[in-house]
């Protein structure tokens, strides 16, 4: 070998090592990857927890509403298209029952608007319905991107990242509760045009001060904490060492303390529904939750003094059914009865019931049935049912490392469905965007489960005899 050839060998080795590192970065699972799509999704998730994006009016001309989430979502869709065609051609859209349920609800929403177009145009409410429909399509788009752009091995990392964001948001919400200072709107206002929501710094009819975090209503952070808390509890249960258990337990405690800081009954009802689902799957988790509940009491008292007692007092029978907010909720049923009776199947048009003009309906079920009728509300519930059943299937039959995220998704789905009876979910965009992430993760995990089932079928077919005398020998 010549001296020049010997000199080229180390250079070729270094070049090969460089290409191997590059390939690992391109094909590896997030966060150990240079693929742009998962990083863009992580950024969108961070926006949900850390920015008041629905209060930011961009100084640009966009169709319908110039909110921050619209251009960010368009960028994500562009990266998704590139990942399907150029960056990662192996990726493709795989339809699941969640896809069909989601698309069905969108089609029903469109049909309800078309069917009632003459009336809604005359009342001047068609524009409201179209704007809400565009937002609903945004939710569908995010779900499709997550379901096809995230890999099964990345789901746990994304949910861990979500919990980290939730803890940061929770600490800021607790700060707002104690010192009446909202860091999200104050700091964001230094860089972007922010419209301050009416709830910020105000109190309601029973004296509860509004703690809203990066949202427009206290119920939004309460539900966000209730939906992310299950993964922290599942991770605490699965952690092999005490240090990790304590860290995850502290994270869950901080989330619950932040939910209680909103001073809304939902901050207790929704987490209880989530915990009930986890206990149904893992009864042994109670042995860790009972001492954890004691720790939670101290964490809540230290971080949000008076919050737990204030919410607990609202749940007492004499207070729960006699306060103005509860009485208003009870009167909502009689108020919408004429609209529901007159248009029972498709309603008066998706989200055309202007609550600022008529009355506030703190109930997504009522908002859905008045807008899209009985067909619409059944379709709405079918989305949550599809998410839960797919996550349930993964929790029962998936790999051990996938079971924890599937359990958390099941619990979060039930909490969000229960929350639909306590607040208007679709009016607070952080919540539907969050459930779209959970739905996408469930679809991803089921895709991995389907691949395992197919592989198992192939292996069984290879082992099975092909005839009465055993396997048929190969022929040339």
Describe the 3D structure.
The structure is a single chain. The chain has 476 residues and is mostly helical. It has one domain. Helices cover 70% and strands 0% of the residues. It has 18 helices and no strands. It has helices at residues 3-27, 36-50, 69-87, 97-115, 117-123, 126-149, 155-179, 183-188, 219-238, 242-261, 266-281, 286-303, 307-314, 317-320, 324-342, 364-397, 400-419, 430-463. The longest helix has 34 residues, at 364-397. The chain is globular, with a radius of gyration of 25 Å. Mean pLDDT is 84; it is low at 15-25 and 466-476.
Which helices and strands occur, and which strands form pairs?
Blueprint: H1 3-27, H2 36-50, H3 69-87, H4 97-115, H5 117-123, H6 126-149, H7 155-179, H8 183-188, H9 219-238, H10 242-261, H11 266-281, H12 286-303, H13 307-314, H14 317-320, H15 324-342, H16 364-397, H17 400-419, H18 430-463
Helix pairs in contact: 2-3, 2-7, 3-6, 4-6, 4-16, 6-18, 7-9, 7-10, 9-10, 9-11, 9-17, 10-11, 10-12, 11-17, 15-16, 16-17, 16-18, 17-18
